[in-house]
């Protein structure tokens, strides 16, 4: 900075004002300083400026996996929303979903100098009282019931599941079978609970839920079992990938869709309309989830105070050709 000031014939304070974009410098002087910076190859030290200001303009993201549709689309939305606000994103995947690993990730992000942490949690690991974020680092959480301690943004899991079951019952199905997600998943638990409660409220039999791991392969294995159930006319899969596997198994076993069995998913992934037949599903607005996560993080950064409470993002039903009325007599 001293060298730039000497070459431009100005004070060090003027160089500082130009490099930080502050007003109060004439255009002629600003141009001379910028020319001197270019000639000397000078670049302002953003890390040093961040240390002085106590603001790093970086948001840390902790997640367990990038293999699920929800995590990938949510992360994409977070990155785009943060970039629009001039913030970078530091991603820290956690290999093993344990409280010790999450605690270590929070500590590591503190060392990496972030202003806030967004935790994309599919398991209940934010409930430990010993889990403490770094000092002055705000926390926002996706997919959790920790709204009493953190700002939480989540898809309306229960509302979406109710809509799926109501759609199938309205078509005339006596009950709805369910392929649930992993037991430890908060989203899967919400969808399964709402499926069960909706059937009970309608006075319908509640079949034993099958369980998958979000993959099409696990859906295929469950679909082979469902195909052997003569009274199964409707299936609600907890995500579209598992619904795809169910549909493959039903096709292989000679069960027509939706003539013999209606299938509905959850997510509305881009390929859902290209399934055979095109998949009826519950649409999640991952863009809005990511945007609201970033908005909450920035609001806490700017106000210097934490937030609590849960914001639910609505879902909606997308009807395609995989659902229909049950065959006569079924």
From TrEMBL:
Residues 1-53 form the HTH lacI-type domain. InterPro entries: HTH_LacI, LacI/GalR-like_sensor, Lambda_DNA-bd_dom_sf, Peripla_BP_I. It comes from the Bacteria. Keywords: DNA-binding, Transcription, Transcription regulation. GO terms for molecular function: DNA-binding transcription factor activity; transcription cis-regulatory region binding. SMART domains: HTH_LACI (SM00354). This is LacI family transcriptional regulator. It comes from Streptomyces alboflavus.
């Amino acid at each position: 900075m001293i060298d730039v000031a000497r070459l431009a014939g100005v004070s060090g304070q003027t160089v500082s004002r130009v490099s930080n974009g502050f007003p109060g410098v004439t255009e002629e002087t600003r141009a001379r300083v910028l020319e001197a910076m270019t000639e000397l190859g000078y670049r302002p030290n953003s890390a040093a400026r961040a240390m002085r200001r106590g603001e790093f303009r970086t948001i840390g993201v902790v997640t367990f996996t990038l293999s699920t549709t929800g995590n990938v689309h949510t992360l994409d939305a977070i990155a785009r929303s943060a970039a629009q606000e001039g913030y970078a994103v530091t991603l820290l995947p956690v290999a093993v979903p344990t409280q010790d690993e999450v605690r270590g990730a929070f500590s590591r992000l503190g060392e990496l100098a972030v202003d806030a942490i967004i935790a994309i949690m599919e398991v209940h690991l934010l409930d430990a009282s010993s889990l403490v974020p770094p000092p002055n680092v705000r926390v926002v959480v996706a997919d959790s019931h920790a709204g009493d301690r953190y700002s939480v943004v989540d898809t309306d899991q229960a509302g979406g599941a109710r809509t799926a079951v109501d759609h199938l019952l309205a078509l005339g199905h006596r009950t709805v079978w369910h392929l649930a997600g992993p037991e430890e998943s908060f989203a899967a638990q919400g969808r399964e609970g709402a499926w069960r409660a909706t059937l009970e409220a309608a006075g319908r039999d509640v079949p034993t839920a099958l369980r998958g791991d979000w993959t099409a392969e696990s859906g295929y294995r469950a679909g082979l079992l469902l195909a052997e159930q003569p009274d199964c006319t409707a299936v609600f899969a907890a995500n579209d990938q598992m619904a795809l596997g169910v549909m493959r198994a039903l096709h292989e076993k000679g069960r027509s869709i939706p003539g013999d069995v209606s299938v509905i998913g959850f997510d509305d992934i881009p390929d859902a309309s290209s399934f055979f037949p095109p998949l009826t599903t519950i649409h999640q607005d991952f863009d809005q989830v990511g945007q609201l996560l970033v908005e909450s993080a920035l609001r806490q950064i700017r106000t210097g105070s934490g937030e609590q409470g849960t914001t639910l993002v609505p879902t909606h039903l997308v009807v395609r050709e995989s659902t229909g009325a049950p065959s006569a007599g079924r």
